[in-house]
């Protein structure tokens, strides 16, 4: 694996977590600090029709994983990407040098999702997902453990600290790859 990631000049980072944990905020700030490319998979799916229709119950597009992976393949091989998505198990393992799982206290998360106007079903589904650490488990099952890092994301201070930590990691990546 080191040989493969070593061929890229810049690392690829996946930032995942339950909706409302601060992925897009973190990725936007990290992209600005590191000059890596921020890829918001939700926006990509919507803008390029990489979906199989709309799910009325979950109030979102039904992601077509194959179309998303095909769309991203060349960019990911090139390196220098921060991928922002609430799932992670369908991306090829070889794509990522670091997998960040953002975690947020349930009360904070509930307030954030309520402000977004999530319906009760979607709200409770996402809170349960966070309580049971579904995305952390998914990341640990999908990627080598030494690439997966959980980061607290309750406050703007947490986000700033996470961005700073990840910026340092990016700056030192070529030394460790």
Automatic annotation (TrEMBL):
It is an enzyme of class 2 (transferase). Residues 115-125 are annotated as: LID. ATP binds at residues 20, 22-25, 116. Pfam families: AAA_18. Its main location: cytoplasm. Belongs to the adenylate kinase family. AK6 subfamily. Broad-specificity nucleoside monophosphate (NMP) kinase that catalyzes the reversible transfer of the terminal phosphate group between nucleoside triphosphates and monophosphates. Has also ATPase activity. Involved in the late cytoplasmic maturation steps of the 40S ribosomal particles, specifically 18S rRNA maturation. While NMP activity is not required for ribosome maturation, ATPase activity is. Associates transiently with small ribosomal subunit protein uS11. ATP hydrolysis breaks the interaction with uS11. This is Adenylate kinase isoenzyme 6 homolog. It comes from Arachis duranensis.
């Amino acid at each position: 694996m080191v040989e493969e990631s070593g061929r890229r000049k810049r690392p690829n980072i996946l930032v995942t977590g339950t909706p409302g944990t601060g992925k897009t905020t973190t990725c936007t700030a990290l992209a600005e600090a590191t000059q890596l490319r921020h890829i918001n998979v939700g926006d990509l799916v919507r803008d390029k029709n990489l979906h199989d229709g709309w799910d009325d119950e979950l109030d979102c597009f039904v992601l077509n994983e194959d179309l998303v992976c095909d769309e991203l393949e060349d960019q990911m091989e090139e390196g220098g990407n921060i991928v922002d998505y609430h799932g992670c198990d369908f991306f090829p393992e070889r794509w990522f040098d670091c997998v960040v799982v953002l975690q947020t206290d349930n009360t904070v998360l509930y307030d954030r999702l309520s402000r977004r106007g999530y319906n009760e079903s979607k709200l409770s589904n996402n809170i349960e997902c966070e309580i049971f650490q579904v995305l952390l488990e998914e990341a640990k099952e999908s990627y080598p453990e030494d690439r997966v890092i959980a980061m607290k994301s309750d406050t703007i201070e947490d986000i700033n600290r996470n961005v700073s930590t990840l910026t340092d990691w990016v700056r030192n990546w070529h030394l460790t790859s």
